[in-house]
Write a sequence for this structure.
């Protein structure tokens, strides 16, 4: 990574340390962005390893590898690590790298807090991973840590609670920094409605994070006091209510889902116009659609809990509200396609991932519509259908958008072009193996396979075998990404400033790689 | 030629028939109640709507990807922003959504109507089995997985032979008459479970300390299988649900038989049990209630589940063991080994279990726990 910043430009300020201390003490948005991205890539492989371990057990019926209690630890920690360790920090990494460059600012608003919000993450990750090695192992209550199952767990649960607190604090600080940077540090002439869509989606995401991370912190704190200090928030025997935990958790959890996808929408909205060589079809409707999705995300949480036994009126309200989300989401998909329409498209790796994203994310959107229908959801809730649905939106959605973003901006970040053939191979293998892994889960879910079970009846055997083969293919394909990134940092064809023929925006006016302090004098925005 | 053509048509027809027979491999299970039928139809309707949208949207995207590419010489047009188009693609989805919401609303209202039930059954979730109470008939029993552990555990990877209903079979199924409205009341003893039978179209969380309800009316005689649908700890995947729908006559005779069993099982306070009688009873109960953790050989799983063979509890004072079995125990630092309270079992069952554990494997205390002692300890 060192080379990314020392190569090709001599305007380094002499006052910052080099070597290891450079990364520990850095207040530079690019260095911190890099740290976030390396951290999330590492956690992506840790979480992926857990996924492969649990798919191994599911390869065929019968218990061959793990005891059921350890299997539950695998599913739980796979979820927690992927959500809080891989996807969320990756988007913050993109925000750090891109937002100052895209709005014409020299750096982020709160440079020291930026350092602190990153360096909170490694201790949290260590707590999570270390929890496997405490007595009783990691928490096995599912990533949703529903009470009272989570109050039964051992010290692994306490480590997870502490890790969530730390990561929540990190997210809140990161969000405050992003909001402040966007609202105060735009170049003269860049009005809000001239901001690139990636910046818009992050502005809205940051507000969501500030609104809901404290809610999660509250939920896990109540869990902690129920576990150790004799409170009864979620214990019916003491006058509490286990379902209240679910309400609080999903009041955080549903906006969290959009926290993980909105910046992805932003990345795709940057990539598609570049490679279609045509402006985004409806800029302002995209902004309004993003805002609508964010607002609606606060009033749909109970669709995760249709089977808890709520009154019909509540089921109806949450069903209608959930269905409404399809409207702004549809507007986004239609806009991307209208942007492609009559363009002059080329399909370099970023565009492949963007097209793949639109296609596969929409499939996840369709199954989301199926699940919005309360009676159908009651049949499918907690089955593999739901597992298929959220992996279509989270892997093929968020993750493919992130991959697209990496290929799109890495020439700018490193100053070198990446290996296009390897990038394309990475896309096609990811796309094919992703579908081999997750498409059969629609069938097993419909036919009645519950999720989070370590073993199953023979009727599900063939589809599970296919899924496991696909999962190993998908996991191994990700090594290509590491190869591409490492090669690209070390060297390669020199990237031009503009990198892509159709690229528009301030970041492309900077050199590749960009100077240490992005814009020392604000650029003029027409 | 003709015969060859005929043969291939026949082959295709046979394949289609085979696929149709397997249709539920790709779809919801065959519905067997009015609500399950409505859910099935709703799902089919929505699938077709989705397929329609899929074809239109991705047809346009595919056309564009093929035709509007630089490599075929397409020049980019620069149009953007069109309010009319934006309004159209906001309003049309909205109308489609209303078309979907209407039938769904009707189903929600009917699935929530648990009034006028003919039979009420309380289903209680335990870690990890179900308890059933027929409230009018006064029948109560537990229902645990009946698949033998030897079929499940294959850690030496020898490949064990598995039965047709592997993991979806129980010792005591729920028996209901067809054509009657059955109200299921759910609750739980420890953590949240969910009572789910796909073919009957119901799934209802069972929440400790709270009571929820749902209903079904089975159309046809048959055996309907489901599973716990809410993660409830270690053996979440091993607590299935089996509902047997039978004719009214068969149901009546089943009820009579169960009542007779209840009467027979009612502990005759005068009966003098012998150690061997209790031990034999206890051995049967041990597999379903204790063996999952403490293992059939009484050795437990080191680090997770304590061994009973040679344990201080099972060889020490029996009063302590009775208390522990009744109240359960929270592991100090090995929470997965937390032992759930077994107070739901009868005095006789607990007495038999404890007697068995005190006189098996390495344990040779030679003493016996009587139902009366358990009864006394409950107070």
């Amino acid at each position: 990574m060192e080379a990314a910043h020392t190569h090709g430009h001599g305007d380094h300020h002499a006052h910052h340390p080099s070597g290891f201390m450079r990364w520990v003490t850095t207040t530079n948005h690019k260095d911190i962005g890099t740290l976030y991205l390396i951290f999330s890539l590492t956690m992506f492989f840790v979480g992926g390893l857990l996924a492969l371990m649990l798919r191994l057990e599911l390869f065929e019926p019968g218990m061959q590898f793990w005891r059921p209690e350890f299997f539950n630890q695998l599913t739980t920690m796979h979820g927690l690590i992927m959500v809080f360790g891989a996807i969320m920090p990756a988007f913050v990494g993109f925000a750090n790298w891109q937002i100052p460059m895209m709005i014409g600012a020299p750096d982020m608003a709160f440079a020291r807090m930026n350092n602190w919000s990153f360096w909170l993450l490694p201790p949290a990750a260590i707590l999570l991973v270390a929890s496997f090695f405490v007595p009783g192992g990691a928490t096995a209550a599912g990533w949703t840590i529903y009470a009272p199952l989570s109050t039964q767990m051992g010290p692994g649960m306490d480590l997870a609670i502490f890790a969530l607190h730390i990561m929540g604090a990190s997210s809140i600080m990161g969000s405050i920094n992003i909001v402040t940077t966007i609202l105060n540090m735009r170049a003269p002439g860049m009005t809000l409605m001239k901001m690139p869509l990636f910046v818009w989606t992050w502005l809205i995401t940051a507000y969501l994070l500030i609104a809901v991370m404290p809610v999660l912190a509250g939920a896990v704190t109540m869990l902690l006091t129920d576990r150790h200090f004799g409170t009864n928030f979620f214990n019916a025997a003491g006058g509490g209510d286990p379902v209240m935990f679910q309400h609080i958790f999903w009041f955080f959890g549903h906006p969290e889902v959009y926290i993980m996808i909105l910046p992805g929408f932003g990345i795709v909205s940057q990539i598609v116009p570049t490679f279609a060589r045509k402006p985004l079809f409806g800029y302002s409707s995209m902004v309004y659609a993003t805002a609508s999705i964010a607002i609606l995300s606060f009033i749909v949480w109970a669709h995760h809990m249709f089977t808890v036994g709520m009154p019909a009126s509540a089921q109806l309200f949450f069903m209608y509200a959930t269905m409404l989300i399809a409207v702004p989401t549809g507007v986004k998909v239609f806009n991307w396609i209208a942007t492609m329409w009559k363009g002059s498209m080329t399909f370099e790796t970023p565009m492949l991932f963007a097209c793949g994203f639109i296609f596969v994310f929409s499939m996840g959107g369709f199954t989301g519509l199926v699940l919005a229908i309360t009676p159908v959801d009651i049949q499918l809730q907690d089955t593999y259908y739901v597992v298929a649905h959220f992996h279509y939106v989270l892997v093929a959605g968020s993750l493919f958008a992130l991959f697209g973003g990496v290929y799109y901006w890495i020439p700018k970040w490193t100053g070198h072009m990446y290996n296009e053939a390897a990038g394309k191979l990475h896309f096609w293998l990811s796309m094919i193996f992703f579908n081999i892994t997750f498409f059969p889960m629609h069938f097993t879910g419909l036919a009645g396979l519950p999720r989070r079970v370590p073993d199953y009846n023979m009727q599900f055997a063939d589809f599970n075998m296919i899924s496991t083969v696909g999962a190993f293919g998908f996991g191994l394909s990700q090594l290509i990404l590491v190869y591409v990134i490492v090669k690209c940092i070390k060297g390669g064809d020199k990237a031009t400033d503009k990198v892509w023929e159709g690229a528009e925006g301030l970041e492309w006016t900077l050199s590749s790689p960009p100077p240490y302090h992005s814009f020392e004098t604000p650029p003029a925005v027409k | 030629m003709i015969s060859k053509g005929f043969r291939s048509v026949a082959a295709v027809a046979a394949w289609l028939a085979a696929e149709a027979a397997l249709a539920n491999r790709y779809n919801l299970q065959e519905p067997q109640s009015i609500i399950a039928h409505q859910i099935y139809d709703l799902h089919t309707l929505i699938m077709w709507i989705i397929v329609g949208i899929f074809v239109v949207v991705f047809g346009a995207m595919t056309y564009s990807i093929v035709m509007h590419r630089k490599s075929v010489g397409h020049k980019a047009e620069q149009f953007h922003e069109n309010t009319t188009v934006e309004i159209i693609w906001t309003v049309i989805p909205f109308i489609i959504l209303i078309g979907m919401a209407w039938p769904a609303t009707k189903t929600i209202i009917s699935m929530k109507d648990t009034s006028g039930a003919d039979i009420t059954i309380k289903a209680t979730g335990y870690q990890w089995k179900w308890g059933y109470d027929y409230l009018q008939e006064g029948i109560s029993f537990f229902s645990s997985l009946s698949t033998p552990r030897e079929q499940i555990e294959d850690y030496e990877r020898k490949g064990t032979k598995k039965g047709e209903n592997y993991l979806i079979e129980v010792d005591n199924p729920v028996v209901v008459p067809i054509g009657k409205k059955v109200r299921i009341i759910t609750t739980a003893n420890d953590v949240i479970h969910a009572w789910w039978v796909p073919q009957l179209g119901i799934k209802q969380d069972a929440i400790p300390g709270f009571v929820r309800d749902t209903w079904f009316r089975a159309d046809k005689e048959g055996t309907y299988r489901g599973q716990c649908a809410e993660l409830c700890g270690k053996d979440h995947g091993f607590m299935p649900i089996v509902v047997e729908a039978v004719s009214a006559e068969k149901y009546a005779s089943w009820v009579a038989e169960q009542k007779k069993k209840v009467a027979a099982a009612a502990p005759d306070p005068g009966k003098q049990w012998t150690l061997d009688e209790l031990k034999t009873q206890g051995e049967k109960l041990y597999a379903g209630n204790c063996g999952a953790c403490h293992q059939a050989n009484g050795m437990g799983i080191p680090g997770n589940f304590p061994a009973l063979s040679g344990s201080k509890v099972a060889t020490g004072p029996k009063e302590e063991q009775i208390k522990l079995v009744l109240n359960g125990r929270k592991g100090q630092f090995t929470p997965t080994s937390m032992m759930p309270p077994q107070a739901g079992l009868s005095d006789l069952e607990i007495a038999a279990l404890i007697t068995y554990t005190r006189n098996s494997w390495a344990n040779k205390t030679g003493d016996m726990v009587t139902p009366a002692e358990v009864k006394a300890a409950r107070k």
